[in-house]
Design a protein that fits this description.
With about 325 residues, this protein is α/β, with parallel strands linked by helices. Helices cover about 25% and strands about 25% of the residues. The chain has nine helices and 15 strands. Strands 3, 4, 5, 6, 7, 14 and 15 form a seven-stranded mixed sheet that branches. Strands 10-9-8-11-12-13 form a six-stranded parallel sheet, sandwiched between helices. Helix 2 crosses helix 3.
């Protein structure tokens, strides 16, 4: 089969299209023919550069959330069969492992390939009404959005939530998950086009944080009460304090990203006087949340923002696009092209 192999860390051109042996399924495993895999920042470009927080085992094939069709099953597999349309969540081994969960594209070869091997239990069925490109984006971001808002921030129906980076991969599903939970959503993004994209996803109001005063606009929208929850995944030293200043009494800020720098100032006076809770979170995908999200997509309730679909051979170009932050939506690789 053809695969994009990383044999050394470095810039995008370290990824090479190679002919490698087809994977063989072991007990409990399936082989999936890839139809789509999304190109992500942390678990793709950062891992390729050798800057991921956990050790990436080289050589490696990246691609943490591939979607496709099962073509072979290993001994003992009863929950899946050849021909099933599936998508894989990032964690393919138990979180109880000594060094944490085992990740596709970090500890095992991922989906930048024509085929990949995965435990059958790590796959979820993709409804016929959901295309593979949408499925791969949903698998990466939608369950994490639910985890941050529901499990970590304890978002309640009727509360105001500010979604930072609301047109990005995680932010766009933050908007949709929050609306699904009955919250009132303010979408914040860096261009008018991105704000409009988030409004089209269902946000109640929008703010361009590059051309408008984020704190003032949020307070105006909420009639000076502020938001109950800030959904933060940027970590920008200028934007973070502006979002923080817009939090209501007894509000919460949940953060799961630091792409904007990660080191931010914190107003401790506001922190204790307003009894604000700051919560850190990492990505988490449960089969139930993934199934819920795929069902919502099949019914037209969840949408994935996709900028473009490229052939597997253009993986280096895809990484350059993602790192440039010039795209609106996800970049997808399709090994069938």
């Amino acid at each position: 089969m053809k695969a994009i192999v990383v044999r050394e860390f470095g810039p995008p051109n370290v990824m090479k299209l190679e002919e490698v042996p087809d994977p063989e399924p072991g007990p409990g495993e399936v082989i999936v023919r890839v139809h789509a895999v999304s190109v992500n920042h942390t678990l793709d470009t950062v891992a390729r550069a050798g800057k991921f927080r956990r050790r990436v085992v080289l050589p490696v094939v990246l691609g943490i959330d591939p979607a496709g069709v099962i073509v072979r099953i290993g001994p003992g597999v009863i929950e899946r069969r050849a021909g099933d349309r599936v998508v894989t969540s990032s964690r393919v081994r138990s979180e109880s492992a000594a060094d944490g969960p085992q990740l596709l594209s970090v500890h095992a070869w991922g989906g930048y390939a024509e085929l990949y091997k995965v435990p059958a239990a790590g796959t979820s069925i993709v409804p016929d009404a959901v295309d593979f490109a949408t499925a791969t984006v949903i698998a990466r971001h939608a369950p994490t959005a639910f985890h941050l808002l529901r499990d970590r921030a304890k978002l309640e129906p009727g509360e105001w939530v500010l979604i930072m980076g609301a047109a990005g991969g995680l932010g766009s599903f933050g908007v949709q998950a929050a609306k699904h939970m009955g919250a009132k959503v303010i979408a914040a993004a860096g261009t008018d086009e991105r704000v409009k994209t988030a409004l089209d996803l269902g946000a109640d109001a929008g703010v361009n944080y590059r051309s408008q005063d984020l704190t003032a606009e949020v307070l105006n929208i909420t009639r000076d009460k502020g938001v109950n929850v800030v959904f933060e995944n940027i970590g920008d030293p200028e934007l973070f304090p502006k979002a923080f200043a817009a939090i209501a009494l007894d509000g919460r800020l949940v953060t799961a990203g630091g792409h904007g720098g990660g080191i931010v100032p914190l107003d401790v006076n506001q922190l204790y006087l307003k009894r604000i809770i700051v919560i850190g979170a990492t990505g988490k995908t449960t089969p139930a949340d993934l199934a819920l999200s795929l069902k919502a997509a099949a019914e037209g309730g969840f949408k994935a923002i996709i900028d473009r679909v490229l052939p597997l051979s253009q993986a280096p170009e895809a990484h350059e696009l993602v790192e440039s932050r010039s795209v609106l939506g996800k970049v997808i690789l399709d090994p069938t092209q």
